[in-house]
Design goal:
By secondary structure, the chain is mostly helical. It is built from 15 helices and two strands. α11 crosses α15 and α14 runs antiparallel to α15.
Length: 299
Amino acid sequence: MLSKKLLRESPLHIMLIPGVILTLIFSYVPILGIVIAFQKFQPAKGVFNSEWIGFENFEYMLNMPSFGNILWNTVFIAVMKIIAGLIVPIIVALLLNELAGQFFKRMVQTIIYFPHFLSWVILGGILIDIMSPSSGIVNQVLGFFGINPIFFLGDDRWFPYTLVLSDTWKHFGYGTIIYLAALTAIDQSLYEAAVVDGANRWKQTLYVTLPGMMPIIILMTVLSLGNVLNAGFEQVFNLYSPMVYSTGDIIDTFVYRIGLLEAQFGVATAVGIFKSVISFGLIVLSNKLASEYAGYRVF
């Protein structure tokens, strides 16, 4: 019977083969490269002939004067993105839920969702233009109110917040769809009961809508813990410059510079492993919290 079932499902297994092969090549075979973190790696000698130096690369990484600042930048920017990425979509979903006109509602959804499909290469160019201190429309509006031009992408005081705001602008449309879906699952009889009790729209939102959305809010919150060290390489790489390294340089861009530009392959690999180990622990923690507080399990 097992052989008949296997034969019947063989087309499905055959369809899986290309995906499995690609996963092995691009996700599992590169794992062997972590040995570079424990070597004084020289490309000419390769992985098998390079000098083995143990944990010296990790010691060098931890003793680097800039590493603590880079770690702080990563955590600060990532946490700010997580907070904004939770609050803004919830507010927008609640506002869209109050719209009566379906055509206007769907038009707004389409507009706010569109940036999610654009790469940071495209959005980076757009942001550089609109935030230019000399000709950008943002500074022109600020000048209309008598505010001096702000170099958003070149001032280390403003750069982290520019990253957070632009990332929220790009992704909040996607989050809004998730919370709008959660709103449709709320029992409408609860609103009817609230109206009978004399609740206005604000109180209906406070005592019916938000509690009804709370399970998905908790789920999205705990699952986002795994991204605490993911501050967004593509975004930062396309927007930052040496002028904002003090507040905008993150682990991923640091690994790119010392690994590919300065050819310190061992140190770069050590930093990558450091990030991966912490991220793995945070993902396990978030899955545990999601299971305990939201009843959600990945496996």
